[in-house]
Specification:
The protein is an alpha/beta fold. About 30% of the residues lie in helices and about 25% in strands. Helix 6 packs across helix 17 and helix 19 runs antiparallel to helix 20. The strands form seven sheets. Strands 3, 5, 6, 7, 8, 27, 28 and 29 form an eight-stranded mixed sheet that branches.
Length: about 600
C-alpha cells in the first residue's frame, strides 16, 4: 500500500459523513472504513468538495424505494457531483496517491450487488456513487471502492472510473473545486446536446444541435438549464435563437448572469418569456417553430407545449423525470401511404437511428439479441412474411404466430429458424394498426418494453401518449418510422468521456455558486435547498467541516463570522472574514481565490495547489 502516512492514517480514523437514514431524513454521522480495506484491493479517496444535485433530493425522499439504493440499506452516504484526492492505491491500479480525480457516478448499467459487484438480476441495484453505498460518496470525508469496480464500469460500457485532473488544470488559478465538482452535471448536459438529432432540409439526420438552431428551454431557469446555456455559449455552432420560459423572478436572475450576456454578445437572440404572461405562447411562436425543445421540468403542461413548439423533424429533449409517471408526451404520427414489403425491410435498416439506440447493441436496426413483438397484421399481409424473413435466425418472436402476430397458425412451421413464444420485455415492437387501434396497442405494450426498445408504427395514422418514464433517459425507447414528427432524446446518463472533457478543459461554473457549507452544516444546506429550490448552485467543502451554511457574498459572510465568533468558533469566523474580503473585491462571485482564502485561514494548502 502506498500513500502518505498522514493521509492513510487519517482515513483509518472515524470521520464524518452525510447519510440518508430514512425517507426524508439526512444526518451527519461518524463512520469509519473497514480496516481490512487498507490491506489492499481497495482505492481509498478523500472528498474535497461536492455540489448538491436535485437528484439527491429524490434519493432523500425515496430512500430504499429508489432504484439505485439497496432495499435493505440502513444508511447511504450521499453525494455524486464530487471531486476527490486519492489517498491509497496499490501499484498497477489506474490512479496513484495524491492525484485529484473525478469519479464516474454511474457504476453499473445492469443490477449488481453493491458490496461485491457480482451480477444480481433479482435483488441488485444500478449501483451509483452517492446512492448505493455506505462507504463511498461525495459527502463523507473518506471513501473506499473495490478495485474491481473499475473493471465493472468498463465492462458495462460506463468508461473510466477515475478521471485524473491534469496538473496544468489544477495549477491554473482560475480552476476551483466548485467548477471541477460540476463535471457530472456538465457531462449530463454535454452528452444530451451531442447525442440529440434532427432531420435536415434534405431529409438527412443531423447529430447534435444543428447549426444556427432555434432552441426553446421550457422551465429553463434551473441549474441544469444554466449549465446547458454555458455549454451553448462556449460554442462552436451556437444557436441563432434561444427562448427560455420561467417565472418573472427567476428570469430576472437569469438575465443578469454572465452566460446570458455572453450569448447575446455572440449575436444569439435570447428571449426570456414569463410563463405567467398571457402573451407567452404568442411570443414563443412568433419566431416560428423550434429545431430543439428542451423540457427542464416534467409536467403535462411542459410536454404538451413541447409537442406544439417543435418543428417537423425536430428534437424534444427531456431533462427531468416526472414525479407523476402517468403524464404523457403527445405524438401525432401521420398515416403512411401504402406501406409495402420493401418499406418494412427498410424499417430494419433505416428507421432506427444508431446513435439513439446504441449501434453496438443493434444489427440491421434490431436489438442484439432481439425479442420482437408484431401486432396488427392481417392474415394475408405480405409485410409480415417480409419482416419474419428479415429476422436473424434464433430471434425470439412474441406468441405462436396467431396470438401475437395475428396471421395464421402456420408461422412457426414456416419459420422454424425463429423462436416463437417470446415473453416481455420486448426490444422491438412493430405495430401495423392505425387510428385508435394503434394507440391502444401502444398503451398495452408500453409497460412491456425493454429499456432501450424500438417501436415502429408501420402504418402511422394515430396519436399516442409516451409515458414520462420512457422520455427521461437517452437509453429509453425510441419511436421510429418514416413519418415520426419529431425525435426524442433525453438527459444523457453521464459518460466518463464527457467528465474527462471537463477535467481537461473545464468550463467555469463559479458564477453559479450561491450557497456553501462545510461538511457539518451540509444537512442544513440539503434540507433548505430541498425546501426552497433557490436559484444557482450549492457547494459543500468537505475538508472544511466547521464552515457554516451561508449565502455567497461579502455581507452574508461577515454576518456569519459574527455569529461564529459569538459562539466561540474562532477558526470558522476568521476563515469567513478572510473570504469576505476577497468576495468584496470580486463582486460577490465565488472563485478559486475565495477557496484559497478559506483554506489558508484554516492553515491548509488548497488541494489543487499541492
Amino acid at each position: 500500500m502506498t500513500g502518505t502516512t498522514t493521509a492513510v492514517e487519517a482515513a483509518r480514523q472515524p470521520h464524518h459523513g452525510v447519510f440518508i437514514t430514512a425517507p426524508g431524513q439526512v444526518e451527519l454521522r461518524r463512520d469509519r472504513l473497514p480496516e481490512r480495506w487498507f490491506a489492499g484491493g481497495y482505492v481509498i479517496t478523500e472528498s474535497l468538495g461536492n455540489s448538491v444535485c436535485s437528484s439527491d433530493q429524490k434519493a432523500v425522499q425515496q430512500f430504499t424505494s429508489h432504484a439505485r439504493i439497496p432495499g435493505d440499506a440502513t444508511a447511504v452516504a450521499l453525494g455524486h457531483e464530487t471531486v476527490h484526492r486519492v489517498v491509497a492505491a496499490r501499484p498497477g491500479t489506474a490512479v496513484r496517491p495524491g492525484q485529484v480525480v473525478l469519479i464516474t457516478p454511474g457504476l453499473s448499467s445492469t443490477p449488481v450487488d453493491p458490496e461485491s459487484f457480482a451480477p444480481a438480476p433479482d435483488n441488485g441495484v444500478l449501483a451509483a456513487l452517492g446512492y448505493s453505498f455506505r462507504y463511498a460518496a461525495g459527502m463523507r470525508r473518506y471513501s473506499g471502492l473495490p478495485e474491481r469496480v473499475a473493471e465493472v464500469v468498463a465492462e458495462q460500457g460506463m468508461g473510466e472510473l477515475f478521471i485524473p485532473i491534469p496538473p496544468a488544470v489544477g495549477a491554473d488559478p482560475a480552476t476551483s473545486l466548485a467548477t471541477l465538482a460540476h463535471a457530472e452535471p456538465f457531462a449530463c448536459c454535454r452528452g444530451a446536446l451531442r447525442q440529440m438529432f434532427t432531420r435536415g432540409a434534405g431529409g438527412e439526420l443531423v447529430a447534435g444541435v444543428p447549426p444556427d438552431a432555434s432552441v426553446a428551454m421550457l422551465s429553463g431557469t434551473g441549474r441544469m438549464a444554466m449549465i446547458t446555456l454555458a455549454i451553448l455559449a462556449r460554442g462552436p455552432g451556437r444557436p441563432s435563437r434561444i427562448a427560455v420560459t420561467g417565472s418573472a423572478r427567476r428570469l430576472r436572475q437569469l438575465g443578469g448572469t454572465p452566460m446570458v450576456a455572453a450569448l447575446r454578445g455572440h449575436g444569439v437572440t435570447v428571449d426570456l418569456v414569463d410563463r405567467g404572461d398571457p402573451e407567452a405562447l404568442s411570443r414563443l411562436r412568433s419566431g416560428g417553430r423550434f429545431d430543439v425543445v428542451i423540457t427542464f421540468f416534467a409536467s403535462q403542461e411542459s410536454y404538451d407545449l413541447a409537442a406544439t413548439l417543435v418543428r417537423d423533424g425536430g428534437n424534444v429533449n427531456n431533462f427531468a423525470g416526472a414525479s407523476d409517471p402517468d403524464i404523457v408526451l403527445p405524438m401525432t404520427i401521420p398515416a403512411v401511404a401504402a406501406a409495402s414489403a420493401g418499406d418494412v425491410r427498410a424499417a430494419l435498416n433505416e428507421m432506427i437511428h444508431p446513435e439513439a439506440l446504441g449501434a453496438e447493441r443493434r444489427v440491421r436496426g434490431l436489438a442484439s439479441p432481439a425479442r420482437v413483438a408484431l401486432t396488427g397484421f392481417g392474415s394475408n399481409d405480405v409485410r409480415l412474411d417480409s419482416l419474419l424473413r428479415a429476422l436473424p435466425p434464433g430471434t425470439a418472436v412474441a406468441g405462436s404466430g396467431t396470438e401475437a402476430a395475428g396471421a395464421g397458425p402456420d408461422l412457426a412451421d414456416r419459420f422454424p429458424e425463429l423462436a416463437f413464444g417470446a415473453a416481455p420485455p420486448y426490444t422491438d415492437l412493430f405495430i401495423a394498426d392505425r387510428g385508435e387501434a394503434a394507440a391502444r396497442t401502444y398503451r398495452e405494450y408500453e409497460p412491456q418494453l425493454a429499456r432501450d426498445a424500438a417501436v415502429n408504427f408501420l402504418d402511422g395514422g394515430t396519436q399516442i401518449g409516451i409515458r414520462s418514464r420512457h422520455v427521461h433517459y437517452l437509453s429509453r425507447h425510441q419511436v421510429c418510422g418514416p413519418t415520426v414528427p419529431y425525435y426524442l432524446t433525453n438527459t444523457s446518463e453521464p459518460a466518463s468521456a464527457d467528465l474527462a472533457e471537463h477535467a481537461r478543459d473545464p468550463i467555469g461554473f463559479d458564477w453559479m455558486v450561491r450557497r456553501i457549507a462545510g461538511l457539518a452544516a451540509a444537512p442544513e444546506l440539503i434540507r433548505d435547498v430541498g425546501r426552497r429550490t433557490p436559484f444557482g448552485s450549492h457547494f459543500v467543502l468537505t475538508q472544511l467541516e466547521d464552515l457554516p451554511y451561508v449565502e455567497v457574498g461579502a455581507e452574508p459572510f461577515r454576518a456569519a463570522a459574527a455569529t461564529e465568533r459569538q459562539a466561540g468558533r474562532t477558526g470558522a469566523a476568521a476563515a469567513l472574514i478572510a473570504a469576505a474580503d476577497v468576495l468584496a473585491a470580486t463582486g460577490d462571485q465565488w472563485s478559486r481565490a475565495v477557496e484559497d482564502s478559506l483554506y489558508g485561514a484554516f492553515g491548509l494548502p488548497h488541494p489543487l495547489a499541492e
